[in-house]
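Hey, I was hoping to borrow your eyes for a little while. I'm sending you its amino acid sequence along with the backbone structure tokens. Take your time with it, there's no hurry, and the full record follows here.
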Amino acid sequence: MDVAAAESFLADHHQGVLITLRADGRPQSSNIAFHFADGVARISVTDGRAKTVNLRRDPRAVLHVIGESFYQYVAASGTVELSPVSTEPGDATGQELLELHDAVAAQPHSDPDDFFRAMVEDQRLVLRFRADGYAGMV
């Protein structure tokens, strides 16, 4: 698959399925919202959830995104890095999470201070996915 076409497709979409590997090697899938720019898909995740635990153990993943028809899709395979968990309202992770929210949402968050507090309370962090291969049809 053409890399430019795949990356353009990902940049135009914000919902997909993230597939990670359980400890026994079986796949685990999660519906996610993401923002793709500069070769990186960023995803807000919660510490302790299955996908986060899986990726700490094995950073390999697939981001599968469906287009307007069932036959239009991109399956990007690659690896992830995880940011630190947001521990102080407005810390660097919280700032990146707000940028991510505003890139995916229809409008900017109406109360950033409330957002930052929620990110700490939820133990949120940023998953940064970098693809090293693409398959699909766009």
Observations:
- The first strand starts at residue 15 and ends at 21.
